[in-house]
Every structure is written in C-alpha cells, then in structure tokens.
Design a protein that fits this description.
This is Argininosuccinate synthase. There is one protein chain. The chain is an alpha+beta fold. The strands form 5 sheets. It has a 6-stranded mixed beta sheet with strand order 1-8-7-6-9-10, sandwiched between helices. The chain has a 5-stranded antiparallel beta sheet with strand order 15-14-13-18-19, with helices on one face. The protein has a 4-stranded antiparallel beta sheet with strand order 11-12-17-16, with no helix packed on it. Strand 9, helix 7 and strand 10 form a beta-alpha-beta unit. Helix 3 packs across helix 8, helix 9 packs across helix 10 and helix 11 runs antiparallel to helix 12. The longest helix has 20 residues. It is elongated, with a radius of gyration of 29 Å. The termini are far apart.
Length: 491
C-alpha cells in the first residue's frame, strides 16, 4: 500500500485585502510581511478555522490609488467563500489536484489555475523512483507558488508490482525496442491523483503535459476511466505561455520563485524502470548521442573487462530473486539497475511513432529492465510450447500498443493480462545471464516445468522418438509443395 504524506494545507497567514475597484480577492499580488508582524499574529494563528500556519510572507492586495491597505485577518474558509463569488478568468472550480514536479512549468501552473479558475490548488507528487533529489524542497516550492496543500505518495512498489511486472510478463515492447518506461508510469500516477481528488474533495485534476505529447492522453484516459465526473485542466492547451522565457515572466509577475536549478539541454523523464532523453541534438536522427548524456549506465567501452554472471529467480513469469536473494519488486529492480548500469546494459536509440501522429527520437536507458526481459524470455523457451509462444508474442504487440496509448484501464488490456497470467503459470525457474560490455546473454536456464527432455532431444536413438517416423511426417508436411511442383511440371 502506498505511503501517504500530507503537508499542512496552508503555510501562510492569508491577509485578504479588498480592492474597492474590482470587489474581488486577488491571490497573485504579494507583499513581504515583517517578521514582527508575523510574531504579532503568530499567537492567534491557532484560533483560525481551517489550516493556517504562520509564514514570513502574506498574501495582500493594494486597496486603492492612495495605497492605503486594509488588512483583514481571514480564515481559509472565508477566503474560499470570497473566491467562489468571483471565480476566475476562465470559469470557476472549487479545488484542483495538480500533478506537480516543482519545476518551472508546474510552479507556474499553480498561480495560473488560481487566477483562471478561482480555485484552491492541491499539489500532488508521486515517488516512482525518480530519485531523492527530485523530491527535495517540494513542500516549500508548492507553498511559495500558492498551493494550499502538498501530497506525496510513495508508489514505487505499486509501480513495479502492478504495472511493470505485468508488462514484463506479457513481453510488451513498443516498436521493437521501447520498454514502455514512461507509458507504464503515467497510469499509476493518474490513478493516485484520482484517489487524492476524492480524499481532498477536489472537483478537478490538472497536468502539465504539452499538447504535442503522449502523456496528456495517458493521464486523461486514466481520469476518464476511474472518475469521469472530474474536470480536467490542461494549461498547455489553454494558456498563452509559449516557452521558458514566457513562463519566467509569468512567475515574476505573480511572485512565484523561479526554480534556480540549472536547466538541462535535454528533456528527461526518470523512474525506477528507465531514464529517457529527448531534445537538443537528439532532434536530428542523424546525430550520435553524446557520451556525457547518459546517467544510469556507463559507456559499454568503459565497462569492466571481466563479465559478471547473475541468476534471476522467476515464479509464474514474475521475477522474485537475484542470485538466490528474494527481494521486493522495487528492491529487485533497483539492484538490477545498479548491476546493469555498471556494465552499460540497456541503452537504445529509437525513432518512434507518437500516438498523436508525429515521429520523435528518444534515447532510453533501461538497465534492469533489459536484464529482466532477457531472463523471462529465456525461461519461457523452456516452459511454453511453440503455438503458445507465437500467440503470446502476437498479443504482446497489441498489449504494448494499448499501454503506449494510455489505455491501461481499458477492458481489452485487462482481459489480455488475464490471458498472460494464465499462460505463464508454469514459467517458474531460474536463468543465469552473462553481462559484458553492454550485452546480455543467457548461459543457463532451469525449470521444474521444463518441456525440454534430454532423452528426446538427444542425437541418440530412444523409445519416445523413432527417427524413422520422420520420413512419413516430411511427406505429409511437404505434400502441398509437392503437388504444386507436379502441377508446374505437368506431372
């Protein structure tokens, strides 16, 4: 079960200042409040109804041309009531749950939602293994942007157990290479947002996906499937902000601290399964990726000169152990990422067809996932017969397409998953893999359910397989070809 961390809804005293000209509350004009004033009101903060905490900044509004300011100490409930009467530039929503990363885009979206929809904004962050640095300081950033609450959920185990491993069991690979790292992460995040929206009483959800990408579809199809009554706000499809400079200007205008982190020249998405790279020189498919771009794996040329052997234990198509040590799903994948990354495993360079129609070029690092895909496929070679493998592989293409297109909660994918679960019941055993300078190769495989029989496969004659029987089989199997040749020769 995901761990839930709720940060106190309001971190600052709201000083609502009336603007007699407009008669409404504005949330984006702010003045710094002296610490003495903060201390003066601090003793009364606990008497407020709602969830008010003291901060060194207060939301205020210049009241008139004479610059006289009338401060009214308000509870969160009073502020909300006044906001409802005014709404926003584009309409009125009560409370919006925003998929929040703390970067420039989502930091700007917070005041934009408040300004355009007159709503409270609850920021939501999912921990899907993007790294502890990505989660640092989010509470302060969310509050500074104007959010009334930050919710953080640890979804790592759920992500690997309920999303990654089913795709792995199904053998789902999009367009021959892509192991669906971003595609699998979006539905688990969107599902958690729907849950949070229910918990906080929100009537809408919002995301920072652009109108050109796949992620907008993945988020919104999940919202539709799990709660069709929720309103969905996609600022990138509505606002006038065209790029980073516009976003910075908007942030300054609304007193939102601009993240000071150095902007990468690449667009990256990281989770426990993979790391993707897009943009900059990668936009030209003719350019080779730069060596210093990679973050999860070493260059295969720089990998150890000695190979490493590892054993993956699998039960019913699902990995459960590494070198005999049983691990939780997230722990197992974390360990394999480290091992695989050390040997330069799992790099792919792909020109893919996006769902929205355009082609894009991306470079992906999936060290642990590449190891696991090899292990499962090698074990299936022992436990599944020819017809089953062929049907499974054909369905895996459709399964991958559904996941890539954001249809995780589609009945078709769920039905196909039931098939995959049933068909891999006997895929239990272990596989030994050799890792060496970017390559993964199986050196051994064993299963109590193996269909491989040495007494049948041996070149020695045996009682089960009589080699003389092959003559009749070949004549019957080749009969259509023989008849066609006879026709062509007039026989």
């Amino acid at each position: 079960m995901a761990q839930l961390k709720a940060v106190s809804p309001c971190s600052s005293i709201n000083l609502a200042l009336h603007n007699p000209r407009r008669g409404s509350l504005l949330y984006h004009d702010k003045l710094s409040c002296p610490r003495k004033l903060q201390e003066q009101f601090g003793s009364r903060a606990s008497e407020l109804h709602g969830h008010a905490l003291v901060s060194s900044t207060c939301n205020v509004i210049r009241a008139s041309k004479s610059k006289a300011i009338q401060a009214v100490f308000s509870s969160e409930r009073e502020v909300e009531a006044k906001a409802k009467s005014g709404g926003g530039l584009r309409g009125k929503l009560n409370k919006v749950v925003l998929a929040y990363s703390g970067g420039l885009d989502t930091s700007v979206i917070v005041p934009w939602l408040r300004e355009n929809y007159g709503c409270e904004v609850v920021c939501f962050t999912a921990d899907v293994g993007q790294g502890i640095k990505e989660l640092e300081g989010l509470e302060e950033k969310a509050k500074a942007s104007g959010a009334c609450q930050l919710v953080v959920k640890d979804l790592k185990e759920e992500f690997v157990r309920d999303y990654i491993f089913p795709c792995l069991r199904a053998g789902a690979i999009y367009e021959r290479k892509y192991l669906l790292g971003t595609s699998m992460a979006r539905p688990v995040i969107a599902k958690a947002m729907v849950d949070v929206a229910k918990d906080v009483g929100a009537d809408a959800v919002a995301h920072g996906c652009t109108g050109k990408g796949n992620d907008q579809v993945r988020f919104e199809l999940t919202f539709f499937a799990l709660n069709p009554e929720l309103n969905v706000v996609a600022p990138w499809r509505e606002w006038d902000i065209q790029g980073r400079e516009d976003a910075i200007e908007y942030a300054k205008k609304h007193n939102v601290p601009v993240p000071v982190t150095k902007k990468s020249i690449y667009s990256r998405d990281r989770n426990l399964w993979h790391l993707s790279h897009e943009g900059d020189i990668l936009e030209d498919p003719a350019n080779e990726p730069k060596k210093d771009m990679y973050m999860m794996s070493v260059d295969p040329e720089d990998a150890p000169d000695q190979p490493e052997y590892i054993e993956i234990g699998i039960v019913s198509g699902i990995p459960v152990s590494v070198n005999g040590k049983k691990l939780s799903p997230a722990s197992l994948l974390t360990e394999l990422n480290e091992i695989g990354g050390k040997h330069g495993i799992g790099r792919i360079d792909l020109v893919e067809n996006r769902l929205v129609g355009m082609k894009s070029r991306g470079v992906y690092e999936t060290p642990g996932g590449t190891i696991l895909f090899n292990a499962v496929q090698e074990l299936e070679a022992l436990t599944l017969d020819r017809e089953t493998i062929q049907v499974k592989d054909s369905l895996a293409l459709k399964y991958a397409e559904l996941v890539y297109a954001g249809r995780w909660f589609d009945p078709l994918r769920e039905s196909m998953d039931a098939f995959m679960e049933k068909i891999t019941e006997t895929t239990t055993g272990s596989v030994t893999l050799k890792l060496y300078k970017g390559s993964v190769s199986a050196t051994g495989r064993t299963s109590p359910n193996s269909l491989y029989r040495q007494d049948i496969s041996s070149f020695e004659s045996g009682q089960i397989y009589d080699q003389a029987d092959a003559a009749g089989f070949i004549k019957l199997y080749g009969l259509p070809m023989r008849v066609r040749a006879m026709l062509e020769k007039g026989i």
